[in-house]
């Protein structure tokens, strides 16, 4: 989970795993290599529960005011996240494109 800004070429070389990126400006696609990843909106109950759990753990362990604010405004803040999945990793998992 990324709660801060990302630089250009985010996900370059990302071959596995999934990233959730807070994207309140809606411009995340400008900062990443779209040829190698798929960007979706976390929408399933399982994805949203996982994401909220990660943020809650971060808040508890660090006292992050941003994490606390995101949790306080849930589910509105949940709509500001994107899910980043490398295309090759998705194929490995056997999920259709």
Total beta strand runs:
3
Number of helices: 3
Strand order across the largest sheet: 1-3-2
Instruction: Tell me the distance between the termini.
Output: 23 Å
- SSE string, helix = H, strand = E? EEHHEH
Shape: globular
Name the poorly predicted regions: none
**Sheet with the most strands, sense and barrel status:** 3 strands, antiparallel
Question: Can you give a write-up of this model?
Answer:
With 97 residues, this protein is of the alpha+beta class. It is built from 3 helices and 3 strands, in the order E-E-H-H-E-H. The chain has helices at residues 45-62, 65-72, 87-93; strands at 19-22, 37-40, 81-86. The protein has a 3-stranded antiparallel β-sheet with strand order 1-3-2. Helix 1 (45-62) runs antiparallel to helix 2 (65-72). The longest helix has 18 residues, at 45-62. It is globular and about 35 Å long. The model has no long low-confidence stretch (mean pLDDT 90).
